Amino acid sequence: MSEARLHSAPPSVLPVSVDAPAPGAENMRRDVELLDRCARGEIAGAVRIYGFSPPCISLGRMQAVDDVDLEACARDGVEVVRRPSGGRAVLHDQEVTYAVVCAASDPRFGGRVLESCARIHATVARGLADIGVRAVPKAHPRDVRAAARGAAVVADCFAVPAAHELLDVRDRKLVGSAQARRGRGLLQHGSVLLEPPRAARYLRGLTSHAQSGGVRQLLGRDVSWEELAGALEARFRAMETGA
């Protein structure tokens, strides 16, 4: 995203871009730069929708690198990077990634962590509905800390849904997400599956319980990356313009 494009938007509007696929380290660099600029008050934030080339596993901020089979990744040309956001490992291949950066006080996407997650997921769910996919948020668990501890023992992000993450009509996790906060700014990463999750082949330990059909299986047709990315883009633009 160009500097000119970021500064051309009014202060209260988050510019939305669909970016060409890039290596994992470059995608994370761009997101961290946006988060840092938002934390310093230089920009209101931004929404990026993008892919990865080559395929990449991103590890959550606190996740052990030992969770990854690095030899298998090297064999198949899969990069490994660390996200600034939390959560567990995601294989970025046959999926669409989004990054929302904004102030924690943003009236559309801000708030406390779960509140912010719910607001962002509601926008993603509308984008999915526009192409015929019904997605609903996972109910808030009674014991959030216990749920988080349970998820932390599994290496694969798509093995265990967290509160407000989006499930398909069969209660299978369709959208994985994680957040990071710096000063006044927040960054939420999300991964929307086109195909069933395949990260388990590159992970060690307890990884094989991820269940999801992905958007293509749910709709029974070959949904393109561009179609799904475009649906998300349209909904984020509608939120930011008040449409």
3D structure, described in words:
The longest helix has 18 residues, at 113-130. Helix 2 links the parallel strand 1 and strand 2 (45-50). The protein has a seven-stranded mixed beta sheet, with helices on both faces. The chain has a three-stranded mixed beta sheet with strand order 4-3-5, sandwiched between helices. By secondary structure, it is α+β, with helices and mostly antiparallel strands. The chain has one domain (3-241): Bira Bifunctional Protein, Domain 2 (BirA Bifunctional Protein, domain 2, 2-Layer Sandwich). Residues 1-11 have low confidence and may be disordered. The chain is 33% helix and 21% strand.
Brief overview:
The protein is of the alpha+beta class and 243 residues long. The chain has one domain (3-241): 2-Layer Sandwich (BirA Bifunctional Protein, domain 2). Helices cover 33% and strands 21% of the residues.
